[in-house]
Write a structure and sequence with these properties.
Elements lengths: L5 H24 L8 H29 L7 H23 L6 H23 L1
Length: 126
C-alpha cells in the first residue's frame, strides 16, 4: 500500500534529522554554548558522517545494478543505516528509487529509522 505524500514526509524527516544532528554538533563544539554530552555528540557525528555515505552507497548500488556490476550487499546497506546513516539511506532509497519494491528491505529500513527516533526520543524526554 502506498500512501500519498509519504515520500515527502520521509525526506523531510531525514533532512530534519541530519540538519538537527549537524546543529547539535556545531553548537556543542562552539565556545560559550550548551554541551550535548559525549554520547549525543558521538551519535550526531555518526549521523553526519554515515548519512552521506549511505546516500552514496544507494546511488552506487543502483548504478551498478543498471550495469550488472558488482553490487553492495543488502546487509552492508542495512548496517550503514543501523549505525546512524538511516537518514541518508532513506533519502538514497527514495532519490534513486532503489530497493523500493522489496517489502522486506523496506520494512527493515523503516524499523531501523523508527528505532533511532524512538531511542533518541526516549533518551531526550526521560
Amino acid at each position: 500500500m502506498k500512501l500519498p505524500g509519504m515520500k515527502k514526509i520521509w525526506l523531510t524527516l531525514c533532512a530534519s534529522w541530519l540538519i538537527g544532528s549537524l546543529a547539535v554538533l556545531i553548537f556543542s563544539f562552539s565556545k560559550n554554548s550548551f554541551k550535548a554530552g559525549l554520547w549525543a555528540e558521538i551519535y550526531c557525528l555518526s549521523v553526519c558522517l554515515l548519512s552521506p555515505a549511505a546516500f552514496c552507497a544507494y546511488g552506487w548500488d543502483k548504478w551498478k545494478a543498471e550495469r550488472e556490476g558488482r553490487r553492495i550487499s543488502e546487509k552492508t546497506l542495512h548496517v550503514l543505516a543501523f549505525a546512524g546513516g538511516w537518514p541518508g539511506a532513506v533519502a538514497g532509497q527514495q532519490w534513486f528509487r532503489h530497493k523500493t519494491l522489496k517489502p522486506v528491505f523496506r520494512t527493515v529500513l523503516l524499523l531501523t529509522a523508527l528505532l533511532h527516533v524512538a531511542v533518541v526520543a526516549t533518551l531526550y524526554f526521560r
